[in-house]
Amino acid sequence: MARVCQVTGRKPVVGHKVSFSNKKAKRRFLPNLQTKRFYIAEEDRWITLKLTTDAIRTINKNGLTTVLNELREKGMAI
After folding, report:
1. Has residue 1 been placed in a domain?
2. At 40, is the secondary structure helix, strand, or coil?
3. Which pLDDT band, with edges at 50, 70 and 90, does 78 fall under?
4. Rounded to 5 degrees, what angle do the CA atoms 61, 42, 10 make?
């Protein structure tokens, strides 16, 4: 699977690794992805999402049902 957050859509970005002598070499900055299981009480089932830690904080703040409703409006099947 791709290294993309299912809530925020955050992906790897490309930058430079800079040595002490200031040589630059290409590298990738990967998002901090975590696989997390959530229980949806309204549907009486578990779902597994691939999220960044920022998205986990968003779910804690806004609630799981709010975030899932926004994802379903965008057309994501959950």
Report:
1. no
2. strand
3. confident
4. 40
Evaluate whether residue 65 is within a structural domain: yes
Please give the model's pTM, rounded to 2 decimal places: 0.82
Residue 57 is inside which H or E element, if any?
A: helix 53-62
Q: How many structural domains comprise the chain? A: 1
Six token digits for residue 12: 């790897």
CB atoms within 10 A of CB 10: 18
Residue 14 lies in a domain: no
Domain presence at residue 40 = yes
- CA 45, CA 11: separation in Å to the nearest integer? 28
Write down the pLDDT at residue 29. 97
